[in-house]
């Protein structure tokens, strides 16, 4: 991405790059500043020249793109649109490489920007290059995309003087230097100053005050240029500025309805203010467009929007026509508000959620009742949240009453709660969602939907009692079984029979949710907390595929921490890492800060267990779940490194009431780690207190790992011969949890070695070494191997080397190819072009020692 202030030369550089791209397919689009945005307008500009490749895409992606680009009716998720856009670029790149050039990206419609940044992060090795010009990436989707960045500053004095000379002005050196200093070397400012016909005042100001008309004053110079045009030409430019797509047919059609002849455009072209080519009218610079629009009277702007609406209605473009009708209405109009609401529903259905937010905001301003205004603002904020525009959502809610009554109050509370979760303040989210449930009264589905989200908010806020209380309210609101299952799961007492996700799914036909996909959340969250992790993971894998296929990106992101954690518990560490990293990318894309920080904390813990230093980060405000994950990770790292005082300090902090990392569930999961760190740091009294607090819950829990942790903790504290019994009991519960099984084997082996029972010790230490090695827990494997040697035994048997040094993406490709999927099918699943898949396989065959795809089936592709 090329970043720089207005006039820094971004457009010139991008145009130069496009001009030099001989032999490439060059696809371009330019963002247009507009109060309203047309969903996927920018994507349409980019993909229209290669749309003939749509038939080569998977059917669901092709249909999603057709809906988004207005080629067919129906609905489409932004996820499938993004995947389809990437796939279509990949199809175009099969014959020759593709260059995508996006200028003024800060004004590109949000839906298009999401699809293009989705593609930009995934085009490596695909024969696709993408260039973006943007004023600033801060707070923009591009800033979160992690793209290489070029920042443009001002021209140096020599270059600035040459630019002025190229424009026919050779000022004295002192004047030239003053102009360059005053403009900061901004190329556009220098070019426009060279156009000024009377330079005397300009020179005087530059020399005396060290200033020239830039910024707002430069806009004034653009206004002067527009004002020099004949009246008919000025008015026609107002119409062009009001029409957001640059369609010459629409502009001239609307102008004709206002009595403006097409010939009025000639004067603006002659002055270089606009360019007309290929049926598109473009302003030379966005400030000229702004000057043309704002310098006219509001009466004429209103008339221009009305005329544009008539043209669009005649063409059947009802959504855009409704927007322009609304722009032509200075007051309140309930009919127009209702029409805009309908247009928002249409836009959201085809993936233009950001556009829906803009339409609903305008509908709110046209509303004739306070309740209607509040409801539409809440709906607009909800759409903004779904599209990842959290700041816009907050702004919209600031326009709504603080506590509106009735149905409007429910909608406002829900939107405020969702935005607080997205921002990472789950405690505030819980308060809002609980208030919404209170206001919903007898509307059972509303109540249950809000309370389910409130449970999640309370969990992340570390307010476990509130989470349990919300689950009880669900049980009392008509969904007794689901509330009971959720409460039992949070309490760790879910029975194996109740931990059947298929049973929970079948019982959830009447659960609230915008789409069927929401029903999958209940079984996943309940069984993630339950006693059957293997069954929960199998169900989660199917749910993951279903949600991916239907494009439910927001929900897919929500379940990522659960799926990653289950895979990690079961020893599928590569899979866990893949799931967590994919979820992290999606969370960043969608502004889901709470999920983002939880996944970052989880990845830190995964790294610590592999023996790598965890990456630190700052958890979002009040996100105790994320803070606890990170603290646990840092404590485990210190424990593996032998820094027992540091480990004890870190892990004991998890148990401190009121701390930023206080989190009941994490303390339960980490209990034995806390005890071990305290014992090794010779803080036995504190360790005994931890066990005393943990034991009553663990003894009544149905979770195998809870009983294993309790026995392991008691073994560490045993001062008599009972340690062996507790180690043996702990191991019985860990058949499905290999890392925890290895921890017990290592500790048991250490205890036996200290008891001079070397042969028995070697058996346990060898098992620990093998399990750690298979998992990739390198630091722990070294510790176990050292203990094994100290017991007088040889090193552990070498396990199968498995897959050498593959990245998570490479491993995914190899696995899918080994299952018999084609390059195209693999690309569809992983959002890669078939060409990229082929490139990776060609590179990996020698590394894996195979000559063809069939031989991949014979490889050990497990963890």
List keywords for this structure.
mainly alpha, 4% strand, WH-like_DNA-bd_sf, 863 residues, Rossmann fold, DNA binding, 44 helices, DNA-binding, five-stranded parallel beta sheet
Q: What gross morphology would you assign?
A: globular
Helices and strands: which structural class?
A: mainly alpha
Average pLDDT across residues?
87
| Count of extended strands | 7
Remind me, CATH topology of the domain at 2-151? Rossmann fold
**Rg on CA atoms, Å:** 31 Å
Strand order of the largest sheet: 2-3-4-1-5
CATH architectural grouping of the domain at 2-151: 3-Layer(aba) Sandwich
Question: Helicity level, as a percent range?
Answer: 55-70%
The quaternary state of the protein chains shown equals single chain
| Poorly predicted regions | 798-802
In this structure, how is the largest beta sheet organized?
5 strands, parallel
Structure annotation, total helices: 44
Under CATH at level 1, the class of the domain at 2-151 stands as Alpha Beta
Walk me through the structure:
- This protein has 863 residues and is mainly alpha-helical.
- Among the domains are: 2-151, 3-Layer(aba) Sandwich (Rossmann fold), CATH 3.40.50; 157-214, no CATH class; 224-327, no CATH class; 494-615; 808-858, Orthogonal Bundle (Arc Repressor Mutant, subunit A), CATH 1.10.10.
- 64% of the residues lie in helices and 4% in strands.
- The chain is built from 44 helices and seven strands.
- The strands form two sheets. Strands 2-3-4-1-5 form a five-stranded parallel β-sheet, with helices on both faces.
- Helix 22 packs parallel to helix 24 (444-461).
């Amino acid at each position: 991405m090329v970043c720089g202030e207005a006039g820094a030369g971004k457009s010139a550089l991008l145009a130069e790059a496009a001009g030099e791209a001989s032999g490439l397919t060059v696809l371009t689009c330019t963002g247009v500043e507009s109060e309203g945005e047309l969903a996927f307008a920018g994507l349409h500009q980019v993909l229209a020249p290669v749309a003939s490749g749509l038939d080569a895409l998977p059917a669901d992606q092709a249909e999603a793109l057709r809906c988004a680009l207005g080629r067919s009716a129906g609905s489409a998720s932004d996820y499938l649109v993004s995947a389809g856009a990437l796939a279509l670029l990949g199809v175009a790149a099969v014959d020759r490489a593709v260059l995508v050039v996006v200028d003024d990206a800060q004004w590109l419609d949000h839906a298009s920007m999401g699809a293009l940044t989705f593609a930009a992060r995934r085009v490596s090795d695909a024969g696709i290059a993408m260039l973006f010009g943007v004023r600033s990436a801060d707070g923009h989707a591009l800033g979160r995309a992690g793209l290489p960045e070029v920042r443009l500053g001002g021209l140096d004095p020599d270059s600035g003087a040459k630019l002025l000379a190229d424009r026919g002005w050779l000022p004295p050196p002192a004047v030239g230097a003053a102009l360059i200093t005053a403009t900061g070397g901004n190329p556009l400012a220098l070019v426009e100053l060279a156009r000024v016909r009377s330079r005397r005042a300009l020179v005087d100001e530059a020399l005396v005050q060290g200033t020239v008309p830039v910024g707002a004053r430069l806009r004034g110079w653009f206004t002067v240029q527009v004002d020099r045009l004949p009246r008919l030409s000025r008015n026609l430019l107002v119409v062009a500025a009001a029409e957001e797509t640059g369609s010459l047919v629409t502009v001239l059609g609307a102008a004709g309805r206002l009595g403006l002849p097409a010939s009025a455009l000639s004067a603006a072209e002659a002055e270089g203010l606009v360019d007309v080519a290929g049926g598109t009218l473009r302003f030379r610079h966005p400030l000229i467009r702004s000057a043309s629009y704002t310098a006219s009277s509001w009466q004429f702007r209103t008339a221009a929007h009305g005329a544009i609406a008539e043209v669009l209605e005649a063409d059947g473009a009802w959504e855009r026509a409704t927007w322009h009708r609304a722009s032509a209405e200075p007051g309140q109009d309930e009919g127009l508000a209702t029409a805009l609401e309908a247009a928002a529903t249409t836009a959201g259905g085809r993936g233009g959620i950001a556009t829906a937010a803009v339409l609903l905001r305008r509908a709110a301003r046209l509303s004739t009742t306070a309740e209607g205004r509040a409801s539409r603002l809440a709906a607009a904020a909800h759409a903004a949240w779904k599209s990842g525009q959290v700041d816009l959502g907050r702004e919209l809610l600031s326009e709504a009453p603080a506590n509106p009554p009735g149905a409007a109050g429910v909608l406002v509370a829900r939107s405020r709660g969702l935005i607080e979760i997205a921002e990472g303040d789950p405690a505030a989210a819980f308060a809002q969602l609980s208030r919404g449930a209170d206001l919903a009264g007898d509307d059972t589905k509303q109540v249950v939907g809000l309370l389910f989200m409130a449970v999640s908010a309370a969990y992340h806020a570390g307010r476990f009692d509130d989470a349990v209380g919300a689950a009880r309210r669900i049980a009392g609101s008509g969904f007794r079984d689901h509330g009971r299952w959720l409460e039992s799961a949070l309490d760790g007492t879910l029975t194996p029979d109740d931990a059947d996700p298929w049973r929970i799914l079948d019982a959830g036909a009447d659960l609230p949710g915008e789409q069927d996909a929401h029903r999958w959340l209940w079984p996943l969250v309940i069984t993630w907390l339950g006693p059957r992790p293997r069954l929960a993971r199998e169900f989660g894998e199917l749910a993951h595929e279903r949600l991916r296929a239907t494009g439910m990106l927001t929900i897919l992101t929500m379940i990522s921490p659960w799926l990653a954690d289950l895979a990690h518990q079961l020893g599928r560490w590569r899979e866990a890492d893949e799931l967590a990293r994919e979820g992290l990318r999606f969370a960043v894309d969608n502004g889901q800060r709470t999920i983002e920080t939880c996944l970052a904390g989880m990845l830190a813990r995964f790294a610590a267990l592999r023996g790598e230093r965890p990456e630190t980060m700052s958890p979002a405000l009040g996100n105790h779940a994320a803070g606890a994950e990170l603290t646990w990770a840092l404590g485990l790292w210190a424990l593996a490194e032998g820094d027992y005082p540091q480990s004890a300090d870190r892990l004991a902090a998890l148990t401190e009431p009121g701390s930023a990392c206080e989190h009941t569930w994490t303390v339960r999961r980490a209990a034995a780690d806390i005890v071990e760190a305290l014992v090794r740091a010779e803080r036995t009294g504190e360790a005994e207190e931890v066990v005393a607090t943990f034991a009553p819950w663990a003894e009544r829990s149905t979770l195998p790992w809870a009983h294993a942790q309790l026995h392991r903790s008691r073994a560490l504290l045993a001062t008599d011969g009972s340690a062996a019994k507790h180690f043996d009991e702990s191991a019985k519960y860990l058949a499905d949890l290999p890392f925890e099984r290895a921890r017990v084997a290592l500790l048991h082996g250490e205890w036996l070695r200290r008891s001079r029972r070397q042969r028995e010790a070697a058996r346990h230490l060898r098992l620990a070494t093998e399990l750690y090695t298979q998992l990739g827990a390198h630091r722990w494997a070294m510790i176990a191997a050292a203990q094994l040697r100290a017991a007088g035994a040889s090193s552990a048997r070498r396990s199968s080397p498995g897959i050498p040094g593959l990245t998570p993406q490479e491993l995914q490709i190899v696995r899918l190819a080994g299952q018999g999927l084609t390059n195209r099918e693999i690309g569809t699943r992983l959002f890669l072009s078939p060409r990229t898949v082929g490139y990776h396989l060609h590179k990996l065959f020698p590394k894996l020692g195979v000559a063809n795809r069939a031989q991949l089936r014979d490889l050990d592709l497990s963890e």
